[in-house]
Design goal:
By secondary structure, this protein is an alpha/beta fold. The protein is built from 9 helices and 8 strands. InterPro entries: HAD-like_SerB (IPR050582), HAD-like_sf (IPR036412), HAD_sf (IPR023214).
């Protein structure tokens, strides 16, 4: 493992595929969690209901078997009574504030370098639409391919219908016709081990020490720490 401050590393024969996580990689913080928190506290009645539900949902979220149900609950509370257009406007407002203070410029520079040399660049994120697209617009990446989690409108609220975490990212790349191995993968999270395994060159962005430990245990020394 080495620390490399700049450059995209040794090239591969012909254009490659560079896949970037979003939260913690191109922009600091968990954007979707922050957006849900703000939305759940928007309005007195919604805030009261959200705080009451948190007594059940937070412990449920901490259990791997209950995490999906907890997320559905958080999304329901955050989106109840909101149309798709209202949700998109709220996402755009949140993204503008979040990106303004969280951009990770060295990694954004790397993304631009990949594009300049002809690599196919994809942002793959567990952040859900419409927030993921709003974040990319604020980062100046509106024309970059995006794989994101999806919400669908229901009668009273939106609900999660598709994820983009862990092994799901590799499956979603396959749907785009992208075969493994890819040339480069950038992430801050050990949850992206399936993506890192699928890459020839692997980069951890500003990782926590425990993330480095987990990735090293799984992959050995074959990755680079940035930041």
């Amino acid at each position: 493992m080495v620390t490399e401050p700049s450059g995209v590393g040794p090239g591969v024969a012909g254009p490659g595929v560079a896949v970037f996580d979003l939260d913690g990689t191109l922009c600091r913080g968990d954007s979707f969690a922050g957006f849900l928190r703000r939305s759940m506290l928007d309005g007195r009645l919604r805030a009261v209901l959200s705080l009451a539900a948190a007594v059940v949902l937070v412990p449920l979220f901490l259990l791997p078997a209950g995490r999906r149900r907890a997320v559905r609950g958080f999304v329901l509370l955050a989106t109840a009574g909101r149309s798709a257009a209202q949700l998109a406007r709220a996402a755009a407002e949140f993204a503008a504030e979040h990106v303004a203070k969280g951009r990770i410029e060295p990694v954004l520079d790397r993304l631009r370098e990949h594009r300049e040399r002809g690599d196919r660049v994809v942002v793959a994120t567990g952040c859900a639409e419409p927030l993921a697209s709003a974040m990319c617009r604020e980062l100046g990446l509106e024309d970059v391919e995006l794989l994101a989690a999806a919400l669908a409108p229901g009668r009273f609220a939106h609900r999660p219908v598709r994820g983009c975490l862990g092994v799901q990212k590799v499956a979603r790349l396959s749907e785009l016709g992208i075969a493994v191995p890819i040339s480069h993968a950038y992430t801050d999270s050990a949850a992206d081990l399936p993506l890192l395994r699928a890459a020839e060159q692997r980069f951890l962005v500003e990782p926590r020490p425990r993330t480095v430990t987990r990735v090293r245990a799984a992959l050995g020394p074959g990755f680079t720490v940035l930041g």
